Each structure stands twice: as C-alpha cells, then as structure tokens.
Amino acid sequence: MALGDVFRALTLQQKSQVPELAPPFGFPAPVSPRGISTLANILPPPSIELTPEESSRIQSYVEARLVMGAAAGAIMICSIECPRISLCPLAAIHKAPPGHPCPIEVHYAKERFGRWAQEIGADPDHLGETERIAVGQLAGVDVQEQRCLDIVAVGEDARLTQKSVKDCDVNGQPIAWEVMIHQNLQLVELLHQRRRAILRDWELTPEMQSKKTRGMIKNITDLASRSTDNADKLRAVIKKRSPIIDVNTSK
Length: 251
What we know:
Distance between the termini: 111 Å
Helix content: 55-70%
Number of helices: 9
Structural class: mainly alpha
Strand content: 5-15%
Largest sheet: 2 strands, antiparallel
Radius of gyration: 31 Å
Number of strands: 2
Shape: flat
C-alpha cells in the first residue's frame, strides 16, 4: 500500500465520524474553492510503497494524533536511554520495546484522556474539536508530570536538588557550585500552572466551581424573593377588587 493511500483511508474514516450539520436558517451551505476536497491535493505525500505491517504502524501513529492530540504527542519512545528505565517493569524483565511508544505511557495517556473527557462532561468517542484540544492537553500534562516525578524518584535525583556548577579548575573539575531545586520539580510546577490555566478556561477549578455555586444560590434567592413580592402584589390586587358584602346576622 502506498503512503498516500494510508492517509486517504484515515481522512475518509475521520470524515465518516463527523455528523453532517444542516445549513443554518435553510440557506444552502457555501462552497469554498479551498474546501475539504481541495485539501487532498495540497502537499501530497511522497510516493512510498509500504508493507501491510508498515501501513498499520503509520496509520496507528497518525490516528493517535488525530484522536488524542497533544496526549499522543507527549508519549515518549522506548529507548535504552530512557530516564525512568530503572523504574520500568518491562525493562526489569528485558521486554522493553525500543523504538516503539512506551507501553506504560500509552496506557496512562489513554486512561487520562478518557477520565478528563468525562470530567468536562463529554463523550470520549464523540468529542468536538475544542473539547478534543482541551482533553488532549490535560492528558498530555498528566503524562509529562508523571514522567518528571518518576525521574526524581531514583538515586541522587530523589534528594530533589541538583548542583549547578559555577566554576571549574583547569582539569574541568567543578570548584564552585550551587545547590538548587531539581529542574524536573520546576517543570512539574510549570505543568501544574498549565493544567490550572486549562481548567480555569473550562471553569473546573475549585474557585470557579465555588463562584458558580454562589451565583446559583444568589439566583435562587432572587427568584424566591421576586416570587414572594409578586404573590404579595397579587393578594393586594385581589383584596382591592373583591366586593365587600355586608351580612346581616341579626334577626
């Protein structure tokens, strides 16, 4: 199979999953000269013949990025230079797959992608593009955060500090240095800020939830107050319009 055929199959698959929307207000949909049909002719892939196994691997690679976005891109490739190899259960039994996406991070990314989709009230299998971007970024942050924490869990890095060399002697040996917070902990803090910014956009932080709750309580209180006022006004009108009947009880 040619590389272009793999991409065309993915494009058709993605288009089949997107529901067709009716044009608003009954107007015909505008036809753009640079529409979807034209995109197939822009930047065509090189003519490369692939075996079925190679086609499947490329299709999986591209589809993961189309579906999971940033979360798929955050997954590292297994290597003997992996920074967390001393913690890897697959490396411990000599079954780590070099050159392939890390199976541990793949599973973690998929789990976090599904959980975040549920958190924002969306169906993981039917995400809009805005939702897909947000969920992919949140899952990607989780993957990178876990990697950083694994790195500072072993050996000298577990001290959570590192030496920043300031000066060396003629032989290249450090003679002056500064002990500072481990760079991976600093990255974790940046990842926390990034996650919080995404959650703030979706109003999912505790502060935003509390603000929404206070707003709902205020609206309910205002509604109850208005209902009471309206009931008082209605009773006053009924009382004013009701005829006064004198009843003679004497015989």
